[in-house]
Structure formats: structure tokens, C-alpha cells
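Support reply, case 0932

Customer input (verbatim):
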Amino acid sequence: MIDSHLHLDDDKLRDKADEIIASLPQNGIEFVINNSCNLQSMLDGVQLARRYDAVYATVGMHPHDSKDFDDEFERKMTELAACPKVVAVGEIGLDYYYDLSDRKIQRDVFARQLEIADKLHLPVTLHIRDAYGDAWDILRAQKRYLNNGVLWHCYSGSAEFARQAVMQGHYFAFGGAITFKNADKADVFAQIPLNRVLSETDSPYMSPEPLRGKINTPLNIPIIVNKIASFYAVTARQAEEQIRANALALFGKIAAALHDRTADQKPQGRK
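Our regenerated output:
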């Protein structure tokens, strides 16, 4: 199983991160992707990725923090992206629910980071909340930069919006919200083929039922995979295998790293 979006560097998990990462293999979790929000989380995430085989990282600035985006942050993004364990630009986008940064600044920074992602040959992980219309307008205007894949983190849009995004080849990640009792996502999943779906926890946030209200960890990813499987009437194992294939198709640097690791582990033949 894989967790395509979490925050091990968050204060709620920071002291437990080493223990959590060490427990991933015995819980059937092959790898996780630590997503960046600001400069410090970007630095911390890359440090974790360099220390642990099972952890990958992203670079980028969350819309909440977009007011702090500047040339130095962009330079640091580019520098860190050279690390083989940095696999995407994210989480980037728009958040009109909290409005912690001015909306125009959010839009400008979102558009700029799409350009940076293309320059770095990396897919993008999007955080969009109460801003799907503006987000779609920006993606259309910046379409020439969307050459490496788009992932909608914690997708909460409509079924029709999902249908349009599927037509553009986008991917969708789902986490604890799909397990909530008031969640009615059948119409959304009906528009998204299983080969476009990823699993995530958004740890330490968004714990799934029956753990809602508690600190979330990647060890809860089986709950998400089981729920995804139920929407497609497949087994959890089938969903798990397809989600893994989807992740490797989207995150090329992870596929390359796992290929190299497997090659290194093969016994050498006789000369």
C-alpha cells in the first residue's frame, strides 16, 4: 500500500515520525510521500526522504503560505528538486475557505509554481478548497506547463468536474473524508476510473472513521484502500495493486528509484 500525501514533519507527528516510518513495512505500507507547505516543511520533508528509503518528498508552497513566496523560495525549490527523492511539486493551489493569503497572490503563486514544475519535469499535487472554478481557469491558461501529471489531493469537487478532469488525464487522491458517515461519493467515483485513483491519509489530519477526531497516521491507509475498493466492487488487494501502479505511473522518480533498488538487490551472475 502507498500513502500519496501526508505530513510527517507536522508538529503533531514530528516526535513520532521515526517510530511511524520504522513500522511501515510490517503494516504493508511500501512508501509514503511527505508534502511540502512552506520553506521549513520543505526542508524537513527532504531531510526525512534522504534518511529513509520508504519516504519521498515534494517541494512547493501551500496556498495558505503563498504570501511568503519569493525568488529565494523558488531558488530553494529548484535546488532541492535535484534530490532523487523529491518526486513532485506540491501541495500547491488555492484555498478560499480560510483565505490566509490574498486570493490574487494565491492565484499568481499557483500559476508560477505550475511553470516551475514543468521546468523541473515533475507532476503537481493540488490543494483546492472552495476554488474549483478559479483553479480550472488557471490550469487551462497554464495548460502548456502541465506535461508531467496532475494530482487532485483530497478531491472534494463535483462529479461533473471530476469527469472533465479525467478527460485531461488527471489523477485523484482520496483520504479519510470518504469514510465519513455523511460522505456521498458514489457519483464522483462513477466518473473516475480506478486507474486514476490514489490513496492518501493527509496525516496527521483527516482521520478516517472510526478514528475521526484522533491524530491520523499512514498506518490507517488500509481503511482508505478498503473504502476505495468498495466503490469499484473489487477486492482490497486488487485496489491496492492498481493504486500502486497508478502512483508509479504518475511519480516517475519513485518508479525509477524502486527499479534501481530492485536491480541492486539482484544477485550478480557469473562472469
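We compared this against your earlier run and they match. Two observations from our side: Residues 2-265 form a domain with the TIM Barrel fold (CATH 3.20.20.140). The chain has a mean pLDDT of 96. Please reopen the case if you see a mismatch on your end.
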